[in-house]
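help with this.
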Amino acid sequence: MAEEIWMVQTKKADFTGIAKQFGIDPVTARIIRNRGIEGENNINRYLNGTMDALYDPRLMKDMDKAVAILKEKINSKKKIRIVGDYDIDGVCSTYILYNAFLRLGAPVDYDIPDRIRDGYGINESIIEKAAEQGIDTILTCDNGISAFSQIELAKQKGMTVIVTDHHEVPLGNGGEVLPPADAVIDPKRSECNYPFPEICGAVVAWKLVQVLYGECGVPQKEWEELLEFAAIATVGDVMRLQDENRIIVKYGLRRMEQTKSIGLRKLAGKNNLDLSQITAYHIGFVIGPCLNAGGRLQTAKLALSLLLSQDEEEADRLATELKELNDMRKDMTEQGTEAAKVMVDSCYMQDKVLVVYLPECHESLAGIIAGRLREHYQKPSIVLTRGEEAVKGSGRSIESYHMFQKLSEVKELMLKFGGHPMAAGLSLEEQNIDEFRKRLNENSGLCEEDFKAKVWIDVPMPVDYMTERLIKEFRCLEPFGQGNEKPMFAQKNLRVRNARVIGRNRNVVKLTLEEQNGFAMEAIYFGDGVSFEEERNGRRDMDIVYYPEINEYNGNKTLQAVVRRYKFH
């Protein structure tokens, strides 16, 4: 495991004043400031923002243009085809648009590319097929912004094309290069005045529906009924839970209890989730991976069919199938991760950039395994697999390594690559792997300090400061996730009164911890109990990073510290 440095956030503000003004504890005020929230309006929006605080979709460039075209197509009964993508954002975007166009009485269908056969986004074969089948209008979602030649082909075939996307706009010599579509809605366009461009594809689609419904006289509440799918995609596509995204997820999670989607209910049931208690964690780590499993191992149309299903029996069957696919994906990921670690430990421990070739690994799992390696070794990690025509790979990076730039330096060794600072996808010939690894390592620009994981602590705080009232107050900070992380507290010099490892896999440690003033608190650690015992080895004092929670059991409530990190003295 990589070495860790514990760092305390040191952002300044008048915490007492903020606490007084908003009726919260100074500790809560500090956490809000640590999340980059400053100023009375922003704090108020963070704590009390409602759906009314969402931005006007008409601020997006080409929104009115797209809606005018689509309204005319719907009225003249022209055939519309939605082209989505195979991940959770693409599936939810397609679901939102398909439902909306059915509601408006349009002759509509959808197509989603196959991850392995077609690759990402709209391609020539999808356009050829649409032209043959007499499609008048193609509407993309969660893709299309970089499909210049493909959309040119669709225009040559006489089709109308509207792009809705949220990815970066490609750059050419003269600035942004937009595809030749009839309308291009993407909040990342430089000409776009939308105040918060960090939304996912499904939110862009949902905003389009809001304007379209308004123009066609459909009540606002019917648009709001699609909110939970915008929320699922926001969490599943790992958008930052800030500003508008946080409001969408907060209210989307609340709506799930009333969801009209039989499929969503069935999927929650298969995973033993109660939709009235659903959190962003459940979406990110349970529901999301199940919806993604179809696109990874079979077809994303499975997940879409589940969400669209109106039949209890069919929805039950599809939910079971996706749950089983996800369980299979988890097993395959575990095997791949273990094989990759063995390879790193035996061959590449000195490397600063890990390049691991797992020829037999399913190519859709490369990114997940790369993420696991990055986490374990705190090094940029690229996992390569054998594709049909070439070796394909996926990379995950660390803060001090701009992966896209570094890949650009060795672009002649690759057939294709793309990405951003923290992640990338690529393909190359098998004979170039060793040279690729060697060149990335020679020019990594990394030093030993970069390989230490930073653990950010919000507030160093004695466990005896924790009360039931304060823990309940922390709920106002939810939903937690990327960009609005669960708070981390820390305390030094706790005496371990007792500790016992429990669980069939010995992966839970129950503790009683005592402060220097004699105050004792129950604690729990979820992790490798055997390693914990070995590190403890008779030592009695420890420092912890923790989050407090209320443990309810048999009607009794006790406060306990959930230990995230620990160090024995």
